[in-house]
Specification:
Elements (H helix, E strand, L loop, with lengths): L8 E8 L8 E8 L4 E5 L6 H8 L7 E6 L2 E2 L5 H7 E4 L10 H6 L7 H10 L3 H6 L17 H15 L3 E5 L7 H17 L3 E5 L3 H5 L3 E6 L2 E6 L5
Parallel strand pairs: 3-8, 3-9, 6-7, 7-8
Antiparallel strand pairs: 1-2, 1-4, 4-5, 9-10
Bound molecules: adenosine-5'-triphosphate and magnesium ion (MG).
Subcellular location: Mitochondrion inner membrane
Family: Belongs to the ABC transporter superfamily. ABCB family. Heavy Metal importer (TC 3.A.1.210) subfamily.
Subunit structure: Homodimer.
Length: about 230
């Protein structure tokens, strides 16, 4: 099992491609310090979401190593690894089930009270109150019956319920309107600021980036720069 201390993530000379003849990440080395709020930025296609998929071990690196608190993630059993890492992906996978069950997927043991408190935190309370079936509303195949922003808020709610020591937030570019986004970002920030959790945002928005302890800039599969907002 994964022996977690603070949740430091280290990429050591990582090379990876979905096809062996087309590397997406090339000799990437960087550190996400334990407990810090880190932003990963870079152009579309530069490999940002790929980093997240590698940490979650949807794929294994071709060369190099990924370490969490000094342990090579290939030496850790998958279940334990994924228990410690929470992810809000760019496209939220929802099940054709109720809002309640989609949220509880983050933590099957969550009580109704915990779920309701998260619904408030991610500002889904208005939606839930307006729906005739409330939290028992079925969201449809792939969440077809709710909006993109609502889907993303469900995904964030799931992550809050999971309460894992490391979280990745793959920021979608336009799913949320400005007002809802502001309120939600404020909530997420306060939740993570208060915690000692390692929080990595794959960022498109200036606000997310400016708020970070550290910024990692990717370009063409390589780490272009690493530093603070003011240092870069
Ligand atoms: P965006 O900002 O648009 O989300 P990104 O930096 O997250 O971009 P990635 O999703 O990491 O980009 O993709 C990096 C490259 O890998 C892209 O060229 C993409 O087409 C390719 N790629 C992504 N997923 C796969 C896959 N499953 N199979 C093959 N190629 C893939
Ligand atoms: Mg992406």
């Amino acid at each position: 099992p994964l022996n977690m201390h603070g949740g430091e993530i280290k990429f050591e000379n990582v090379t990876f491609g979905y096809h062996p003849d087309r590397p997406i990440l090339r000799n990437c080395s960087f550190t996400i310090p334990a407990g810090q709020k880190v932003a990963i930025v870079g152009p579309s296609g530069s490999g940002k979401s790929t980093i997240l998929r590698l940490v979650f071990r949807f794929y294994d690196v071709s060369e190099g190593r990924i370490l969490i608190d000094g342990q090579d993630i290939r030496d850790v059993d998958l279940e334990s690894l994924r228990k410690h890492v929470g992810v809000v992906p760019q496209d939220t996978p929802l099940f054709n089930d109720t809002i309640l069950e989609n949220l509880r997927y983050g933590n099957l043991n969550a009580s109704d009270e915990e779920v309701m408190s998260v619904i408030e935190k991610v500002k889904l309370d208005k939606l839930v109150t307006d729906l005739p079936d409330g939290v028992e509303t079925i969201v449809g195949e792939r969440g077809m019956m709710i909006s993109g922003g609502e889907k993303q808020r469900l995904a964030i709610g799931r992550l809050l319920l999971k309460d894992s020591p490391i979280t990745f937030f793959d920021e979608a570019t336009s799913a949320l309107d400005t007002h809802t986004e502001q309120a939600l970002l404020k909530t997420i920030r306060s939740v993570f600021r208060e915690s000692n959790k390692t929080n990595v945002s794959i960022a498109h928005r200036l606000r997310t980036i400016a708020d970070s302890d550290k910024i990692i800039v990717l370009r063409n599969g390589e780490v272009l720069e690493e530093g603070t907002h003011y240092g870069l």
